[in-house]
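Protocol step 4 of 6: record predicted structures for both targets in the notebook before any analysis. Target 1:
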Amino acid sequence: MKAQRIADLYSDYLLASFGATTATGLSDLLEGEVSHDQVTRYLAGTKKTASDLWRTVKPLVREVQAEAGVLIIDDSIEEKPYTDENAIICWHYDHSKDRLLKGINFLTALYNSRGVSVPVGFHLVAKTETYTDPKTQQEKRRSPVSKNAVGQELIKQAVRNRIPFRFVLFDGWFASAETMLFIKHKQHRDFICPLKTNRKVALSKADKQQGRYVRVDTLELEAQARREIYLEGVDFPLVLVKQVFTNEDGSVGIRYLVCSDTTLSFDDVTTTYHKRWGVECYHKSLKQNVSLAKSPTQTVTTQTNHFFAALCGFIKLERLKMKTQLNHFTLKSKLYLNALHSAFATLRALTPVQGSA
C-alpha cells in the first residue's frame, strides 16, 4: 500500500477515534487492510515539514483565497506530561497560564479567508541546545531560533507560496519592532497587533527624531479613539486605537492595538483584528477533535509525523464544515453518536434475551 494511502487512513483514524491512537488500533480497525508494521513505518519515515503541509492544503487555499484574507501567526502548547523528554517534548513557558508546561510547543501560520481557516505553515519548537541556568545552576534546554524569527519565516513562506492576504495578525508576544519592519518593508504587507502597556511611543515625527517617547498606557486616549503614533524602533507611523472591553468575570480590560495601515478607522482595525480569534478555535479543535495528544509515539520523527497527520485531520474537518455548515465540535459529536449507536446495537445483539433458553 502506498504511503499516501496510509497517511490518508491514519488521519481519518485520528478524526474517528475517541481514545488512544496506535498502529495496532488502526490495523485492527481496518481488519488487516493495513498492517501494524505499515503504519509504524509511515510514522517513522521521512519527517514531515511545512512544505508537505502546503502540498496538502494548497487546493483548499486556492478554492477560498481572496485579497481580503488574513494570515494569523500564533503558538500553543499541547501538554504531554507522561511522555519521555526529547528535543520537542520538553518544558516550555506558557504565557497564557504563566507557568512551565511539558509538551509540544508549535507555531502555526493560519490562513483565514471567506469564513474558512486552514494551517498553511507550521513549526515545532525544537530545544536542541543545552545550557546551565546561572541562577539555579540547573541544565536546561533552549531553541537556537527565536519564535519571532520562526514567525517571520512562516510569513515569508506564505508570501512565497503566493497566498493572498492583506494583514498579518499576531499577539503581543510576536510584536517586536524587528517583525514589524520585516512585514512592512520586506514582505510589503500590513499588520495589526496589540502592544504591551510598557511599549514606548512618540506622538509625532519630531518627537521621535528628538527621542521623546512615553509609555503607551500613559496616553490620554479615549475609548474607541485612534491616533497616529511612532513606535520606538519602527521607522514608519502606526495608527493606535484603545479598545475597552468587559471580561467574562465582569472586570474591564484595555487593549492597545496598532496597525501599519494608517488609513483604517477604529472599527476597521478592531473588526479585522477580531479575526485572530480563529486561531484560538483552531488550537482548541486541533487538541480535542483530531487526537493530537492521544498518540504513544516516542521519537521526534514519529511525534512530528503524528502532529502532521493531526493537521491533515483538521483540514478534513474544515472541508466537512464547508460542506455541512456544521462546526468541528458538532461534526465530532455526530461521529461519537454514530459510534455509540453501533456499540449499543452490537451489545444488544450479543446479549441473550432474558427468559430465553
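Target 2:
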Amino acid sequence: MAAKAISVLVLEDDDDVRSMVVEALASAGYDVTAVATAAGAERVLTLAHFAAAVLDIFLPDGRGLAFLELLRDHDPQVVAIVMTGFASLDTALMALRLGAYEYLCKPFTPDLLLRSLSRGLERRQLILYNLEMAQDMSLLAQQLQAQRTALQDRMSQATSTLAAVTELPDLLAATPGPAAALVVVCQTAARLASADLVAALFPRQDAFEVAALHDLTARVSPTADLPRSPLLDAALASSAPAYATDLFFGEPLADDHLLGLGFASAVALPVLLQSRALGLLLCASRRPDAFGGEKPSLLGLVASQATAPFANWLARPDGPDATGFVDIQSLL
C-alpha cells in the first residue's frame, strides 16, 4: 500500500468517474484532492504540491493536456495518468509527448488505475534518486576539483619556496659587494614570509643601523636607524628569534617603534657566527600573527645563509670603527 503522504490530484468533470477514482485512491492510502474543472485545478495547484495526478483530457472549460503542461512546470517528475472516453491515437501520442505516464481509456477498473499509479510512483522515486545522486556526484566533482586546484597551488608555492631557498647561495655568490648581498637576503626573506618589511640591522650604541631594506610600506629609509627596542634587544641578547604576534595589544616584546610605523607583527632573527650575533634580520607585517606556520623555519634558513653577507658588510673597508658592537677579528 502506498504511503499516505503521497498527494494525488484528480481532475475529472464526470461525477461518477471522479467518485470512483477518489474512492479507489483513498482506499489505497493516498491523500486525494479532487476538482471538476481546469480552473479549479489551477487554483488548487497554487496551494499544494502533488506527486501524481489523474486527469481527464476533455473538460468543460478546457483540455486536461493543457493543465498537464502547467502541472509539469511545477514538478517535471509528476506522475500523470490521463483518461478519456474518446480514445484516439493522436491524443494518446500528444499525452505521452507532454509527459503523461499512462493513457487510460474509459471505462477502466480501479485495480488498473492503482497498478499504473504504483508503477509510475516507483519510476518517479527512481528518477528522483538518480537526480539526487547526480547532484551529489556533481558536488563531489566540484569539491575534488577545488582540492586539486588547492593542491596544485600549494605545490606551486612549495616549488617557488624551495627555489628561493636553494637559489640564495648562488645569488649571494654572484652579487658584487656586501651591501647588494644584504639586499638579496632581505628580498628573499620577504618573498618567503610575505613580509611588508625586511631589514638587515646592525647594533650600534643607541640604535640599530639599517644596512639593507626591502620595504613595501615605504615608511623606513634605507639610511635610517631604528631605535633599540625590547623585540630587537631580546633577539640580540638570546641569539634566538624573538616574536611579536600582535603589536597592537602590547605584548611583552612589543616594539613601540615598529607599532608606530603601522606594523602589527614582527620577528627578529639573529644572524650568528660561532654562536655570536653579527646582526639581526627583521621581518615585519601589517597583519597580526603573520609569521606562523612554516615561515619561521624558512626565515631561519635565510638567516643561516646570511652569515657571510653580514660578516662581509661588517669587515668592509668603510665599515664600523672600533666602537662597533661586533669585533669580526675576535669572532674569526
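Step 5 preliminary note on target 2. Confidence is low (pLDDT under 50) at residues 321-332. The first strand starts at residue 7 and ends at 11.
Proceed to step 6 after PI sign-off.
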